[in-house]
TrEMBL record:
One of its GO terms (molecular function) is glycosyltransferase activity. This is Glycosyltransferase 2-like domain-containing protein. It is found in: Cell membrane. It comes from Litchfieldella anticariensis (strain DSM 16096 / CECT 5854 / CIP 108499 / LMG 22089 / FP35) (Halomonas anticariensis). Keywords: Cell membrane, Glycosyltransferase, Membrane, Transferase.
Length: 230
């Protein structure tokens, strides 16, 4: 895969009117010709889609559900590399070139290290734990900004359209194709989920849900508990 590989950045959104323009503006500032930005909105009750439309290559609507939205975006995209970016996450400088280099060898997919943006000093510890766990296990979270070749995405059938843990599941499937490229550059993600619902309660909730998913629990049941806890 050459260095000029075209990258499609796919952003699933839901009620992100406060931040979507800033995020898309930063992506435009990359000054890349070999990229496109595809926003897929899952039925926002605010102006997310209207604000995104002038700034995105494509601004689409779909039924809600992050996995479904990302699959819709991938189907509408042109790139031979797919980058799935959360609406509250920012890419590091030079990210697209790093992705191209990482996938130029025998890797089919990968992710970035993460830094959580917030005031609590434990956020650094949480981010470090996420990065180390991912490096050891070969499993990535969506917060770490997954990227992959289109052929890998198609080989595993895209994201499983389940309401929770779709990032864990696609990582497990992608690992059958190659180990992930674990980039040390950090994406910066908002800690609003952690701070808004309590740091320790969120840690406990996510570990409990991940453990139960690993033990075979149905993601449809887990998402009910996730929503109830939040």
């Amino acid at each position: 895969m050459g260095s000029s590989s075209f990258i499609s950045i796919i952003i699933p959104t839901l009620n992100e009117a406060e931040s979507i323009e800033a995020q898309l503006g930063e992506l435009h500032a990359l000054g890349e010709d070999d990229m496109e930005v595809v926003v897929v909105d899952g039925g926002s009750g605010d102006d997310t889609l209207a604000l995104a439309a002038p700034l995105a290559s494509h601004a689409l609507s779909s039924a809600p559900g992050r996995a479904l939205q990302m699959n819709v975006g991938a189907q509408a995209s042109q790139g031979d590399i797919l980058l799935f970016l959360h609406a509250d996450t920012r890419l590091p400088h030079g990210a697209l070139d790093e992705i191209r280099q990482a996938l130029a060898g025998n890797r089919e997919w990968g992710r970035f290290d993460i830094r959580l943006q917030g005031d609590h000093r434990m956020l650094k510890v949480i981010a470090l734990a996420m990065n180390v766990r991912s490096r050891l296990s070969g499993i990535a979270t969506g917060d770490q900004t997954l990227f992959m070749t289109r052929r890998a995405f198609e080989a595993v059938g895209g994201f499983p359209e389940q309401p929770l843990m779709e990032d864990i599941e696609i990582s497990k499937r992608l690992k059958r194709l190659s180990r992930p490229a674990c980039l040390h550059s950090r994406v910066v993600s908002s800690a609003r989920r952690w701070e808004g619902h309590g740091l320790w309660s969120t840690i406990w909730l996510m570990w409990r849900l991940r453990y139960r998913y690993w033990r075979g629990a149905d993601s449809r049941q887990l998402v009910k508990e996730y929503r109830h806890a939040r």
